[in-house]
Each structure stands twice: as C-alpha cells, then as structure tokens.
Input
Amino acid sequence: MKRSLLLTAMLAALAVPSVASAEHIQANLIGYEEVPAVSTVASGEFNAAISNDDKFIDYELTFSGLQGTVQQSHIHVAQKSVNGSIVIWLCQTASFVDPTGKAPTCPQQGTVTGRITSANVIAGSMAPQQLTAGDLAEMIAAMRAGTAYANVHTNLSPGGEIRGQIRASGR
Output
C-alpha cells in the first residue's frame, strides 16, 4: 500500500514540472514605446506562456486608460523603436476584423485572453521581413530574440496608442 502511494506521488511530481516549465514572456505597454512616441496615460500588460512543445501560446492582455476608442491589438515583428509587420491579432472589433477570425473581441479597457496557434499567424505585410502565414515557430523565435512587440491601436492613435517589446518574464 505504501509503495503504491509513493509511486503515485512520484508520478504526480513528475507531471508538475512539464506545466511549471512553460516559457513565460511578457511586455509592459506604454505610449512612449510607440513609434512615434505617444503621450497618453494609458498602460497595459501582455503576459503569455509558450507551450513546452512550441505548438501554442496562451496569453492575457490587459489595458486601461486609453484616450481613444480601441480598434485592435496585435503582435508585430520588429526591434525596439522600429515599426514592423502585424503577424498575430490579439483582439479585434467590428470595424477592424482579424483576417483569421480567431481573435477575441477587444474591450475598451480590461482583459482579453486567448490561445495562439499556427492558425493565428498571418503573413507579414512588409516583404523584406519574409514572414509566412502559419509559421508559429518563426514568431516564437522572433519573441525569444526580442524582436516582437504587442500594441493596442485606437482611433486617436491608429498606429498604436501603447506598445511594449516582448521578452522573457522570469516567472
């Protein structure tokens, strides 16, 4: 009896590290990270976990204080202080629709959650970037390299009101 309890406890302990070892990434979004910089009281946070097999990313995006009406939110590929192609929609509105149809609806403020898979990845609009639809591995590589950012677009700042470079979070 004790042996089977010990074996069960050991198996349960082995299962926990696979969940706990998911790779966490995050970004703090502010107006001064936008290009060009935006003077706004708004802020936000993007938190995500890349699955152990790199097949999906679970995310939570929270924002508040936006001065304009929210239009959409994305992940773009570009280094800090440079604008880049949209590759993943984090949320959409009736006027600005995710071409994959998979992003949740943006609130004016608050939190959206979702799961990113290869089906969420769209081709980059800037040809020199060579970003291919469906290539989640390349998007994960860009995030790990620090060359991806999350932002929230509004009617007053259509290029983005708040933005943050995605990086490892150390959680």
Observations:
- Residues 2-20 form the longest helix (19 residues).
- The domain at 20-168 is CATH 2.60.40 (Immunoglobulin-like).
